[in-house]
Design a protein that fits this description.
The chain has about 110 residues and is mainly α. Helix 2 packs antiparallel against helix 4 and helix 2 runs antiparallel to helix 8. The longest helix has 24 residues. It is elongated.
Length: about 110
Amino acid sequence: MVEEELLKPGEAQLKEMQPYIFDLIDQLNSILVQNEDLLTQNGLARRISVTLSIMTLHRYNPDIFMKEVWDDVLQILEELKKIPQVANQLNDLLADIEKLNELKKQSGI
């Protein structure tokens, strides 16, 4: 409790984002590996790979992560939803996205 009082506004939410960011990276990586040929055909494999690199680089800095790569993640997600063979694999990813959006709002990023 004392530790929470020492945190700046939004800092608790940033800390809470980390496990969701890690899980999001894992989920997206799994989708890429499992559907590489399909994603390559749809022009998404390279884009996801580059975005995953940036996500991994900033995974310990949620504020930078949200500012630098979040919009790309959301755009990729919209593209993935359009591919029927991949759309049914997005449930866990969508749950992480939803939670991160909520924490993003709460933190004021």
